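B., you asked whether I could sanity-check this one before it goes into the benchmark set. Here's the sequence:
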Amino acid sequence: MSRRINLKNLSVLFFLTFSIGVQAQSFERVETIIGLDILEDNNGVAIADYDGDNDLDIFVVAKAKDNSNNPETLSRLFRNNNDGSFTDVTQQSGFSNLYNSDQDPESFTGLSGYKFGAFWGDYNNDGYPDLFMTFLDSVQLWKNLGNGTFTDVTSISGITKINNCGNTGATWFDYNNDGFLDLFIADWIRCSSNTLYINNGDETFLNVSETSGDINNNNYFSYVGFPFDFNIDGFMDLYVINDKQTPNELFENQGGYSFLDNVNTNNLNNSGQDMGITMGDYNLDGYFDIFITGIDENFLFTNDGDGAFLENSNQLGINNTLWSWGTRFADFDLDGDEDLFVANGFDMTNRGEEPNFYYNNLAIQGEIAFTDLSAQLGLNELGISVEANDFDYDNDGDIDLLVSNSDRGCFFYENKLLNFDDSQAALNWFKVKLEGTISNRDAIGTVITLITTEGVYNRYYSGVGFLSQNLQPVHFGLGNTTQIETVNIKWPSGLIDTFDNLVSNITIKATEGQGYQVLNILPSQKTFGCTDPSSCNYNPEAVLDDGSCVYLESQNIIGNTSSSFLSTETYSYDITAGANTIWQVSGGEILSGQGTNSISVRWQLEDSGRVAITESDNQCSSQEVSIIVDLEIENLSENISVARLWNEALLEAIRGDFARPTVHARNLFHTSVAMYDIWAVYDNIASPYLIGNTVNGFSSVLEDFTPGEAVETALNKSISYAMYRLLSHRFQNSPSAETSQARFNMLMTKLGYDTNFTAMDYLEGDAAAFGNYVAQTIIDYGLQDGSREATGYDNAYYQPVNETYALDGNSNAPINDPNRWQPLGLDSFIDQSGNIIDTNAPPFLSPEWGNVASFALSEDDKITFQRNGNDFNVFHNPLDPPYISVTEHNSNSDAYKWGFSMVSVWQSHLDQNDGVMWDISPNTIGNVDISTFPTNFDDYPSFYNFFEGGSNSNGHTLNPITESPYETNLVPRGDYTRVLAEFWADGPHSETPPGHWFTILNYVNDHPQFEKRFEGEGAILTSLEWDVKSYFILGGGMHDSAISAWSVKGWYDYIRPISAIRTMAANGQSTDPTLANYNVAGIPLLPNYIEVVEEGDPLAGFSNQHIGKIKLFTWRGHDFISNTETQQAGVGWILADDWYPYQRPTFVTPPFAGYVSGHSTFSRAAAELMTKITGSAFFPGGLGEFTAKANEFLVFEQGPSVDVVLQWATYRDASDQTSLSRIWGGIHPPADDIPGRFIGQAVADDVFDFAVPYFNGSLSINEFENDISIFPNPTNGLVYLSNVNASDKITVYDVSGRAINIAEEKYDALSNTISIKINVADGVYFVKINTHVKTIIVKK
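And here's what the prediction gave me:
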């Protein structure tokens, strides 16, 4: 039986309040109570009294394409019931099929989704507000029939319905003073200009854009057109707000006939990333001021009274409210001056939800200032908020606030200053409902001045918002004033009406030239009761909570409230029989137990954590119960060393930084060097790598010193100070620098170290000073290592040969070279970590990385090429990738077409509904020896499964640890492939591929069956020794992998699938020469996968404009997703012009060449190194796992549909899976993959052999450089081996392990060199000198 507790005597109405004089301002979230809880993922919100009953109704725009089976996608009209609630009347009002799901516009980043704004305006002056809506590529005008229904009159009105424009905002205003509303439509650079329609007065419109003067001159990123008579000549001017640093425009009305851009005369020619606008007399000087929102920079233009404006947002502290959209001036606190609200947020990983801002205006108190009361009033809630609308929904006299969100439900804040049952008004107000007669009936453009004994207040009426235009009474707060001396109304026609001696707390209707009447409008009569739907006695009729709610009785969470970093704890809760639970954890992750009475939590590197639970049965729920868990350094597991703590801190910093695999491979290596070298200096046997040596031409000094404290204590301290100083330096310019630095500071504080200690004199044995010295040495080394760190890792000379391809554009020029990398242009580019990139066409990342000082790479591994007089150092040079010919068919072209076509075909696997089930256990997948990898492109089709996906795989008969078969792990292929593509994209938390392999190493280190024996032999090492050695080796491997792979990328400069597929398809098809679209450089046709659009095809277009184009059966892309949490694109036919990789739409493809795959290189190197380090090819217990939870893990779209447990028997199996994931992800063709794997193998072999001697103190870097070297490489078959003896045994093998006959072998005693000659085909071979193995490439 459920346990219930009555909370009637407890305060369950939680109001955040702030003192205003003797009053307390407060807001309450009521969207669920009043009937708006159905709303999700919206853009514009527009307010008007559409049914004429004197209360305000709401139209809300859903951003997604209409889907009748998904309520979130439908825009909705809500009728105000005047009882504190709303009724959804969308269906009976006639609004339907606003944006059909079969509409397929090109991608657009000006706004999220497809449907944008709603704008009320009585265009035919019949007294009933009509509604205009803006969508991507189309607009609609709906006429109010006066009986509660609407009809679409777009086409018959003369307005172009399908205009292929980025229709963001729209504005009703009467620019020619004929009494009828004209229409301005803003375009976000999708069309040639914004659009202006003149109202003909007969319910039709005429497009006058081209004849209206300057209003048609520019093609900018426009959002809002704001009407105001700036030059006071009696005609409405138009101020247009533009994004992307394009200047705002002020179009002065030339007598109602045309417009002249005269923005410079007013100082309003702002060129920011401008979004929304609001106007008000914030400083009560009688002149209207303008506030404009933008990205991390707002603008307040204060009117000087002489027609010019002064920008002073910074002085008033309102210049930065994050990524800002909609905004409103409104008198929320009823004191007479207008306060300011700003809506914020943008949809990306690290910068999604952001707090909104509310500023209280202090002008009425005689101070020109704003105070941020967002937190105090609870108005700073997180969301990706879009529009903000202020209106008195319940007619009680105070202003309420409705905020739309594009990523969740709306926020509806009821202002609680006044209430319907107040016996006496605590504060006073006055409202004016306007009706024009000579002017437009809505009176848009009216100025109202209200005079009292306490002051003069001005309001300007336009109704214009960010994505809305509203029709509602003009509102004044009056504070304690009860009498109004005069009301002056200046109508747009120029007529002025004056009314004297009115009282407060009334609404009047003023009719132009005809006087006014007091409207008898009562506040909404609301019902009291329990308003919480999760309670056990919820009253759906109640809109005011009376404290009577009853809940399931809550219990206590049982578990430690004091824990340590990276520890695992269990938390339990006594669940009522038959009840369900939802656990929530912050500061850690739930490892298991969600939905049960007990969870296992792994705590992270945070100051504290939180565990919360809610219990529910089939009727109601408990209230949330939570505990705070202090996380400390004490009682740290013996398995966790100080090196591990700092490695975790580094990984977190990488997750918050720009996604730069090369830079972070270097960071991982340099930090590993810092920790290893400190350990080695304190160790009696090991030798340091950098400190005290000359490395890559850089020398440092290591003086003898005696530790001033116990070695273990000194080690922890030195490592901590070194890592703190180095990480603080490396991440000082990170977009998450503040968060990362706070974590570094917190860790030092928990460890008991002083972050202000910066001395480096360690000669007296000061461990902290020694740590600082090591850090500074590595910082100095890094500033001269060829990475160009000092100039932000920029490029010295690389230049792309292809022009930028604008993914959001329609007029891209043909590619210059279809074999070379092409930059991509996006309106907004956001990297894998969710950081905004300043440019919309990011440059090639690290094309000159072959110049960076390496770890174990040698001169024998390097070939230097030249392009345009500049050196490109290439390490482990592979064979050329396949190149397409534009003049003839050949095998190279065939390999090119085969590989890139396969990428599109494999993306047809990204839908779990195709019915294909795969066993993804090690029983089926894995156990592929590198000797079986293809070494020429002709053999690739026998390795990869072109149509079904995957590659050759043997599987493992038994788990060698348990000696039992692996259990079958059957999942939908479409779930497996999507999880792979996202899991391996940059790691589960975006720590980039090299960082991802560090997380795998840490995962192995934590496994209960794993013993820290180096190479699987000898004594078990301490956690610190194990960590510094394994990080040192893996860090060196990741760094050398980055140098090798990116040196190849920079020189070969190879094209990516997004460019190759679209370019081939743009050329036509290369299969059937009888068709008109035949082109030798076209894409090959494949029945059911790559075909030609024919007449009658759904993709043919409304005017058959797409007939003859190429279509692909593949993943449909983000145009089919408006909410990534609830929708997936699925697989189907799309135009090849619209093909996208399975990535975020603001990222698309990494900004660097494809060949060779960095993922394949990093992963193979890491897998080999972990095999060598641990002494076993297998994960501990014979199985490594990662669980991707159903409908939680994927971020590109909804999914997976089931829990997908990725499994690997060996590290190499995981590596091979990584490589395939990039093909399914649309990032690499097979040609990028296999060479990367071979390079990774070679890197791992060299790194391990190079690193291990340091542990024994038996080899310095200079000595290793005299080790055996092999040259030239690549070779034509003649190979020289230096630093060898005549007795050394030389053997050559091919990739299948077969011994190759050495045709000739000579020894030169003077140079200690052996020359060998082998007569073999081009390919990869292995030369074994005694026990050492070197990789060579034969290329004749």
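One thing to flag: Residues 289 and 302 are 5 Å apart (CA to CA). Otherwise nothing jumped out at me.
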